[in-house]
Amino acid sequence: MRYKSCYWIESGINFDIDAYKVCCLYSAKGGGNTIIKNNYKGEPVDWDNVFAFKEMMKNMHKSGQVYPKCEECIYLEERDWNEDHTKISMINLDYWTKCNSRCSYCHTMQDKDRYNSFKNYNFLPILKDMIKRDILRPDGHVSFGGGEVTLLREFDKLLHIFMDFGFPLTRIHSSCIKYSKAIEKGLKNGCVDLIVSVDSGSKEMHKKIKQVNSHDKVWSNLRRYADHQKFPYAVKSKYIVIPGENDIRQEIDLWLEKSKQNGINFVFHEIESKWFYARRENVPDEIIDLFKYAKAKAESLGLRYELYERAEHMMEYYHEKRLDHNAGV
Ligand code: SF4
Ligand code: SF4
Fold first, then answer.
1. Which residue has a Cα nearest atom 1 of ligand 1?
2. Domain 87-326, CATH number (from 3.30.420.40, 3.20.20.70, 1.10.10.10, 3.40.50.720)
3. How far is the CA of 143 from the centre of ligand 1 (A)?
C-alpha cells in the first residue's frame, strides 16, 4: 500500500540514555524524537509493544494523517512500503554520555561532571536478545552517537558482533581524540564509516569550540584512519556552523583544505541545533550563502560535500520558501 513513512518508522529504533525511541532526529517541524518507552534502564525490551507502536504510526499515515511529531520531516516519503513488519534494520545508539571533548554546543556542557560520571546501561544483552529472537535484519545498519564511542566499555564487543553479523554499514561518530583499533579494522573491512566533527579549520578555532587541546591529535588520528579506509568516502570530517562563532569563510577554507591534505574525501556540513530550532523559518541569507560557498569550495577541491540532517532541513525550507516566493504565494 502507498503511504507516507520513513525507514525509522518502518524498522528503526533508537536507544537513548533513559528511553527507547522510534528515531533520534529532532529536526522535523513536529519535533521528531518519538519516545516508545521512557524511564528505561536497560531491562528486556518489550518487542511486541515496539512493533505495535510502529503499527499505530503506520496506520495513522495510511489513513492520510501524519504522526504529529513527524510533521514536515524531510525523511517522510510517499511510496509502497513493503518492509517486514517484525524486523529491525536500523539502530541508533546514544545511551552513554561520557566524553573526552567539551564542545561548546553540546547539551552535556550544562553539567559536564554529571554527564561524564553517568553510569549507562549495557546494550550488549539487548543486542544478543535481538539476535536470539531473530528480529535483526542482516542488511541493516547501525549508528553510534553518544558520548564518545571509544570510551564506551562495550564498544569493541558490539562493533565486532555487528561486523560478524554481516551488517553492511556501521556509522560511528567520534571525537577522534582517542584512536581505536576496532574502528580501524572496520574501515579496513569496508563496513564502517566514521564521522568526526572538527567544526573548525584553525587550531585557535578548534580550541575555542572544543575547549580541549585536541587539534593535532584529532587531525593525526583522522589521517591514520583515512590511511586504512577500504572505500574512499568512509572517513568523513564534519563542520557544525555555530553562527557568531565559526561562520567564517576562512575557517571553512582551512577545514576543507585540511580534510583534503589528510586523505579525507567526504565532508559533512551541519548547522548548530539551538540556533537552528529558534530560527528555522527565518534563517538569514548570510548563513545560506555560507553553505553555498562551502559546497562550491569543497567541489572545487574534488571533495564530496553533503548536508547533514538539520542543514538538509534548513536548505529544504529555504528552497521551498524561494519557490513559494517566486510563485507569488
Ligand atoms: S521524525 Fe522523521 S525520521 Fe523520525 S520517525 Fe518521524 S518521519 Fe521518521
Ligand atoms: S564530541 Fe559529542 S558528546 Fe562529546 S562534547 Fe562534543 S558533541 Fe558532546
1. 32
2. 3.20.20.70
3. 16
